[in-house]
């Protein structure tokens, strides 16, 4: 069975973008792959976090993973910082990545270009830690949203370079970007990604928010004045985004939805999108409550960390041996 690994960085509350672009896909993958899913809490602190809020976000993230249908019997679910080897391999990868490579990573470049101040060294080397997360487990595939593809490509480059220099050590991973829903856009500005980090209340659907608010956000989503439902991201980004959201959740093809709305107005279309989204999120929230009340999270994380750590330890030993870091280990 091929191995697949992915992580989510819950630096805020999880959104519909996370759900469609990442979470939901993991559940499908757990039957076909040996799946590792973790909460990237070390990545969260690359930007300032309020400790109490962070703790809540991390717990909610695990609960949402479980609520979505990830089954700890089928996959390994853990918290990144519970496996200390991540930070150590991260350092080794820092030392095997060129400044030029990091300078090309758009996530950091964008923040810098926006004039954000007090950017940390951790944010800059974020892709190295992410490469460590991936290479540690010999992941064949890494499902991510479109914005994270570049980071997986860096992990590939680092793995190839290391293998060429010191012999076969890492599996070279492949990014997997789902076709529908790889980039869900903001409801209030459909030219921007739906993101919890932007200060964009109306544009971003939070998975655990009140359903009535979700409905309202969809009903007031920014559209255009063309007045026909058509998939044309360039000229009708708002409508196209709603079509993508609908199709990703309902499974109905975009063409088929478009055909049903010929000659009809946006109001009716939005109502249907809201219904599809709210039904899905309500189910998720019910399941989330059940998970929180069941108190299983601690045990799930403990088992997951033990399993992940056994693999991580072995890989780190191998890497250190190759580098000549260890004196007595053969
Ligand atoms: P983040 O929340 O930015 O750490 O992202 C976690 C995962 O969700 C990554 O695979 C992202 O690419 C994906 N993701 C986040 N926002 C969106 C979005 N608006 N559309 C699609 N995927 C997203």
Describe the main β-sheet briefly: 3 strands, parallel
Order of helix and strand elements from N to C terminus:
EHEHHEHHHHHEHEHHHHH
Mean pLDDT: 94
Secondary structure: helix percent: 40-55%
Q: Which descriptor suits the 3D outline?
A: globular
How much of the sequence lies in strands comes to 5-15%
Q: Uncertain regions: pLDDT < 50 for 5+ in a row?
A: none
Total number of distinct structural domains = 2
Q: Secondary structure elements and their pairing?
A:
Layout: E1 3-8, H1 16-29, E2 34-39, H2 41-44, H3 51-68, E3 75-79, H4 85-94, H5 99-103, H6 106-113, H7 121-124, H8 126-136, E4 141-143, H9 149-166, E5 174-176, H10 211-219, H11 237-250, H12 254-260, H13 266-294, H14 297-323
Helix pairs in contact: 3-13, 4-8, 4-14, 8-9, 10-13, 11-13
Bound molecules: adenosine monophosphate (AMP).
Adenosine monophosphate binds at residues 8-9, 17-18, 20-22, 144-145, 147-148, 182-184, 193-195.
Provide structural commentary.
The chain is mainly alpha-helical and 330 residues long. It folds into two domains: 3-177 and 296-323, HUPs (Rossmann fold), CATH 3.40.50; 201-290, Orthogonal Bundle (Tyrosyl-Transfer RNA Synthetase). The chain is built from 14 helices and five strands. The chain has a three-stranded parallel beta sheet. α11 crosses α13. The chain is globular, with a radius of gyration of 21 Å. The two termini are 29 Å apart. Bound molecules: adenosine monophosphate. The site of adenosine monophosphate has 17 residues, from α1.
């Amino acid at each position: 069975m091929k191995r697949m690994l992915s992580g989510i960085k819950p630096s805020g509350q999880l959104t519909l973008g996370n759900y469609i672009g990442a979470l939901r896909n993991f559940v499908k993958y757990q039957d076909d792959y040996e799946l590792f899913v973790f909460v990237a809490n070390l990545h969260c602190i690359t930007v300032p976090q309020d400790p109490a809020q962070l703790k809540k976000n991390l717990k909610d993230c695990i609960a949402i993973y479980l609520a979505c249908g990830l089954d700890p019997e089928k996959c390994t679910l853990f918290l990144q910082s519970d496996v200390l080897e991540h930070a150590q391999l991260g350092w080794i990868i820092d030392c095997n990545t060129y400044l030029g490579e990091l300078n090309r990573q758009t996530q950091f470049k964008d923040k810098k270009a926006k004039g954000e101040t007090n950017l940390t060294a951790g944010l800059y080397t974020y892709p190295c830690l992410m490469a460590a997360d991936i290479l540690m487990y010999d992941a064949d595939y890494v499902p991510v949203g479109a914005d994270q593809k570049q980071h997986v490509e860096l992990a590939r480059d680092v793995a190839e370079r290391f293998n060429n220099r010191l012999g076969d050590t890492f599996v070279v991973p492949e990014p997997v970007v789902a076709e529908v829903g790889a980039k869900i856009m903001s409801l209030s500005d459909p030219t921007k990604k739906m993101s919890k980090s932007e200060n964009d209340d109306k544009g971003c659907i939070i998975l655990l928010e009140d359903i009535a608010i979700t409905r309202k956000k969809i009903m007031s989503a920014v559209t255009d004045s063309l007045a026909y439902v058509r998939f044309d991201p360039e000229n009708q980004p708002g409508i196209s985004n709603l079509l993508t959201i609908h199709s990703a959740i309902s499974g109905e093809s975009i063409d088929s939805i478009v055909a049903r709305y010929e000659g009809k107005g946006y109001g009716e279309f939005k109502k249907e999108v809201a219904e599809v989204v709210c039904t899905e999120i309500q189910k998720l929230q019910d399941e989330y409550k059940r998970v929180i009340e069941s108190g299983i999270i601690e045990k799930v994380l403990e088992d997951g960390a033990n399993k992940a750590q056994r693999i991580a330890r072995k890989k780190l030993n191998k890497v250190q041996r190759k580098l000549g870091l260890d004196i007595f280990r053969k």
